[in-house]
Amino acid sequence: MITSLEETENTIAAANQAYARAKDVAPSMRASWLTAIAGALEARSDELVALASEETHLDEGRLSFELRRSVFQLRLFAEEVLRGEHLDATIDHADPAWGMGPRPDIRRYSVPLGVVGVFGASNFPFAFSVMGGDSASALAAGCAVVHKIHEGHLQLALRTGAIVEEALDSAGAPRGLFATIVGRAAAERLVDHPLVRAIGFTGSTSGGRALHDRASLRPTPIPFFGELGSINPVFVTEQAWNRRHREILTGFASSFTMGMGQFCTKPGLLFIPRDDVDVQRILKEEISGKPRRPLLSKKLREGFDHALESVRSTPGVDVLVAGDDAEEPQPTVLVTTSDDVRARPAILEQEMFGPAAVVVQYRPGEDLSSLARLMEGQLTATLHAEPEEDVSILLADLRERCGRLLWNAWPTGVTVTYAQHHGGPYPATTATTTSVGTAAVGRFMRPVAYDSFPPSQLPDPLQDHNPWRIRRRVDGMWESSVMDGETE
């Protein structure tokens, strides 16, 4: 089952050959490959969901939705490829009267990087695994993908990989455009291999940082698009708390326990005013009826227990709602004060990946912005406030530290759409890009400009007659694509 080093070498070589054959195909062809994968996964959804249920402890409803999300994402990327949005094709015709002097004919578009190594995540066996966001966006970009299987759902991943390969083969894609590998040695070789041009990763901060450093220390460093860790703070103003504290606590209880707290966007910190509201009683009531399941793996459970004990044993941190050590653990809520957080900012840095969170009680009138400035980089930050409040300074500080700001909502749940951004400053991620939404495709591409080329030597996306019928910017003005309504 473990992929040998020889097999890894052969897989990467085949991927590079497939990339060479596929990198310049027309958008219609590439889009057909993505839709073929979507159709194949959809047709085998019952089989795949059953396999996932056996290996992950996740319920069938959650898994079915997650698979539908992956299928939707592939089809959305196919539409984006047909429009040519990811190519960012830009044409500036020669202009002797250009403001800074005569301008040559210069044209630019984005090309795929090459072979991309993708590391699957344990907590989303479809959405961030074999044909999750990284694999789908790399294929949409025109790259070949070698996916390192997460062994937390090994049989599911192997079967998913086989279905993807069969779908691509049936659709006429070059053999080797997508493949899977298993095992640590194969994973290390994937990061080190000179034919691999980028890595996508979702996982722990320690594991991701080790791979990031390894990719950076190669003779030729490569980009490492890693999602590592996030605590996703929630700040509640006094005015919002006074008007709807019960509603806020109810939403918090639902959000941090969703999926047994195994979401990268789980709100792990709740900043609330210190007053006479019986927060303990309300949270106990709200948590008591939440569904409980074992965590995804033994290793993940060990990590959660260690992180929980580390935070719980910190001076100034007390237990507000006690959990337990059962196989299906009762959620834990810890509590501290803003004074203790200021004295020990490390309280705000320990991610507890599982059903646990920390409530931070601040003094009435206290500056929330100064607390926000103690935070590291985050995927999300949430503000519960009232529309008439002036929270501009707090929002400005949160914007510096996160990739997605939420207003009177909860961060669990990341929709796949055009405006989505799933990323943030380190340690949330190792790049400024998004791993969710159509903009994710751009991670695995790079721009190339063609200066003063004759028309006969230009690539298709940059020819004046636009043979691919894609959306382009010409002399500063945007053209429409066929999908936007232009007729051929």
Overview of this structure, please?
- The chain is of the alpha/beta class and 488 residues long.
- 37% of the residues lie in helices and 17% in strands.
- The protein has helices at residues 5-22, 27-43, 45-56, 60-83, 133-141, 154-170, 184-192, 205-216, 238-257, 279-288, 298-312, 338-343, 368-372, 392-399, and strands at residues 90-92, 106-112, 115-119, 144-148, 178-181, 196-202, 224-227, 233-236, 269-273, 318-321, 332-337, 356-362, 378-384, 402-407, 445-451, 473-474, 477-478.
- It has a seven-stranded mixed β-sheet with strand order 10-11-12-9-8-13-14, sandwiched between helices. It has a five-stranded mixed β-sheet with strand order 15-2-1-16-17, with no helix packed on it.
- α2 (27-43) packs antiparallel against α4.
- The longest helix has 24 residues, at 60-83.
- The N and C termini lie far apart (50 Å).
How would you concisely characterize the structure shown here?
With 488 residues, the protein is α/β, with parallel strands linked by helices.
Structural descriptors:
single chain; 488 residues; alpha/beta; seven-stranded mixed sheet; five-stranded mixed sheet; globular
Helix and strand layout, with pairings?
Elements: H1 5-22, H2 27-43, H3 45-56, H4 60-83, E1 90-92, E2 106-112, E3 115-119, H5 133-141, E4 144-148, H6 154-170, E5 178-181, H7 184-192, E6 196-202, H8 205-216, E7 224-227, E8 233-236, H9 238-257, E9 269-273, H10 279-288, H11 298-312, E10 318-321, E11 332-337, H12 338-343, E12 356-362, H13 368-372, E13 378-384, H14 392-399, E14 402-407, E15 445-451, E16 473-474, E17 477-478
Parallel strand pairs: 1-16, 3-4, 3-6, 4-5, 6-7, 8-9, 8-13, 9-12, 11-12, 13-14
Antiparallel strand pairs: 1-2, 2-15, 10-11, 16-17
